[in-house]
Amino acid sequence: MRLTSPDREVYPGEGITKRHVAEYYEAVAEWLMPELAERPTSLLRCPDGIGGDCFFQKKHADSLGPGVHAVCLDERDGEDEYIYVRDIEGVLSLVQMNAIEFHPWGARRRSPEKPDRLVFDLDPADGVPWKEVLRAAREVRDRLSAAGLESWPRLSGGKGIHVCVPLEPRAGWGRAKDFAEAVARAMAGDSPDRYVASASKELRRGRIFIDWLRNGRGNTSVAGWVLRARPGAPVAMPLRWDELGRTRSGGHWDIHSARRRAARLRSDPWEGFFQVRQRLPR
């Protein structure tokens, strides 16, 4: 599609322009869209690049362009129209409107009250070694496995790791959030010197916050293969478990290395994620 101001620098001083962002998303569309399509989605838009003012948007507007659709969802005071896309055309329309990040719901638009995934966001305090974050991700995996649930890892593109759990969309948001909280609090209770299940910044010093709060209705987490609005243009990257130990940080991949990875992949690192059938344990 035609971009306005394609040579506007999105990442100041790094030579990464609006055209490069659009070309990146088009190049990784095969891997991006299964997690993003057909979900209510919040955008991070940066009209003047990441060095300017950025803002989140979740409500639909006709000005967002072709391929960007509206889904009507219940709110406390009535209904409102949220954004969703079906294909890469919608993503590129949003890039034209200076969107960089895409944060989908944990449910599809046709069954918005039934989440079909959980996300445990492992957010380390400053100074926590990366090896401790890797250890935490594997512990979440093992606890979920003991409960009969398979999971897949994703680098956040920031400081941490997301452990993601696909579900059959049967349980409601309340039960999903309660389960995620129980896992987080169990880990924090067993290892209080390493983990915390509270968002309090004071309690997080020297520890890893196991963020279970992303599993409530309307809460979101960044999709895999999405660029982050951070210096260096890091990418939220889905991985196989056996790849995780070869990473150096949550921002291990950037726009350039992620595009090369997408070109050489022969199978989805999240192979099986969208096919597995599993439910929350009672």
Question: Mind explaining what this structure looks like?
Answer:
The longest helix has 18 residues, at 173-190. The strands form 4 sheets. A 6-stranded mixed beta sheet has the order 11-12-8-10-9-13, with helices on one face. The chain has a 3-stranded antiparallel beta sheet with strand order 4-3-7. It has helices at 18-27, 29-36, 88-96, 130-146, 173-190, 241-244, 255-264, and strands at 9-11, 16-17, 41-45, 55-57, 68-75, 78-85, 99-104, 117-124, 152-155, 161-166, 195-196, 208-211, 237-238. The termini are far apart. Strand 9 and strand 10 (161-166) form a beta hairpin. The mean pLDDT is 96. The protein contains 7 helices and 13 strands. Helices cover 27% and strands 22% of the residues. With 282 residues, it is α+β, with helices and mostly antiparallel strands. Helix 1 (18-27) packs antiparallel against helix 3.
